[in-house]
Amino acid sequence: MNRIPDPNSFERLAEHAQAAEAKGFDHVDTWVFDLDNTLYPPSSRLFDQIDARMTAFVAHRYGIDGLSARALQKYYYRKHGTTLAGLMAEDGLDPADFLAVVHDIDHSVLIPAPDLAAAIARLPGRRFVLTNGSRLHAENVAAKLGLLDLFEDVFDIAASGFVPKPAPEAYALFLQTHGVEPRRAAMFEDLSKNLVVPHALGMRTVLVAPKDGEPDGMERLTSPDDGDPAPHIDHVTDDLPGFLAALAIVAAE
Fold first, then answer.
1. How many other C-beta atoms are found inside a 10 Å radius of the C-beta of residue 200?
2. Given the DSSP bridges, would you call strands 126-130 and 235-237 parallel, antiparallel or unpaired?
3. CATH code of the domain made up of 46-102
4. May I ask the CATH architecture of the domain 7-40+110-252?
5. How far is CA 184 from CA 18, 158, 253, in A?
6. Coil/strand/helix, residue 175
7. What are the structural domain ranges in the chain?
8. What is the Cα–Cα distance from 175 to 160, expressed in whole angstroms?
């Protein structure tokens, strides 16, 4: 049975198209996506599993209780950009041990995203995933969502020499490795701080925010209804499939 289109969806798509046209994506030929809480919504609670396993890893490594481990984990995150970077810098951790544990999660909470897949497939040019996670984790997630075959490559934390976003070196190595001209690229991220460097390099930047009411414990900047975002953010959306579909409309005009 054919589904009757919701008239409100057309109005929302038109709003996305106007926003996309105003900031200009017509020059973009490379599309770069973060993975966690960007290609899937925070409401899936997938990253909650990773977060909990990071806390458990820290607790086991140091023989401390959960509250103390959580505090130490967040200290590493704030000081070094990721918990892994902190453990490597301050405790000489082998990253393979950490990644194997924290990404051993249940992916059944994710559901295929055909609308997102169709929208990404219509984007002209090259497409990449740039993540602070592992390649295996990214491939597992993208495969579950039905997106894996749409990307030219996954640039993971190992590819960046275990230097995480938002460090400038992580972006520089990605751009160099794949021969990407940043002024012809767009970056989609769920964390504001990870868009500062891309914007400075000339990339078009899009903050992917959770929908109103979605559970969300991440350190973000704003929601789509909070007014003007920070100057390093060109767009804010809580509807990535709709936003990307609007780009296809603009490109076809």
1. 13
2. unpaired
3. 1.10.150
4. 3-Layer(aba) Sandwich (3.40)
5. 20, 25, 19
6. helix
7. 7-40+110-252, 46-102
8. 11
Whether the Cβ atoms of residue 138 and residue 156 lie closer than 8 Å to each other = yes
One digit per residue, the tens of pLDDT, for the chain of length 253 reads 333 334 455 455 445 445 545 568 999 999 999 999 999 999 899 999 999 999 999 999 999 999 999 999 999 999 998 999 999 999 999 999 999 999 999 999 999 999 999 999 999 999 999 999 999 999 999 999 999 999 999 999 999 999 999 999 999 999 999 999 999 999 999 999 999 999 999 999 999 999 876 655 454 433 333 445 689 999 999 999 999 999 876 655 5
**Position 5, amino acid:** P
The backbone region for 81, taken as left when phi is positive above 0, alpha when psi lies in -120 to 50, beta otherwise, is left
Handedness of CA 177, 234, 142, 89 (dihedral sign): positive
